[in-house]
Amino acid sequence: MTSHLAPARSPEQIQTLVRAFSILEAIAGSPGGINLADISRSVGLHKSTAFRMVRTLATLGYVRSDERKLYHMSDRLRPSREPD
Q: In which domain, by residue range, is 57 found?
């Protein structure tokens, strides 16, 4: 599994955004889906913190979970096709 740990923060970075994008990268890098424990381990967050962030991303429509409790990217971030 690829590590999606964020680089060292600078004063200009917002930690929550860095974490959220790290989670999105972990999910996007797992086309077959990824479980919460693997997300947590991949981004270096406690499982409860990862859960709250993933649930927020799901509520906003950026990720979805399946019946096996694996998380996947939703279509929300895919570029829409320009009309012909």
A: 15-73
Instruction: Give me the CATH number covering residue 29.
Output: 1.10.10.10
Find out whether 22 and 4 touch, Cβ atoms under 8 Å.
yes
At which residue do the structure tokens 């479980």 appear?
35
Are the beta carbons of 71 and 34 closer than 8 angstroms? yes
Contact 74, 64 (CB under 8 A): yes
pTM: 0.81
Average pLDDT, consecutive stretches of 10 residues, N- to C-terminus, the chain (84 residues)? 58 92 97 97 97 98 97 88 65
Long-range pairs of 50-56 with CB within 8 A, sequence gap ≥ 24: 50/23, 53/16, 53/19, 53/20, 53/23, 54/23, 56/20
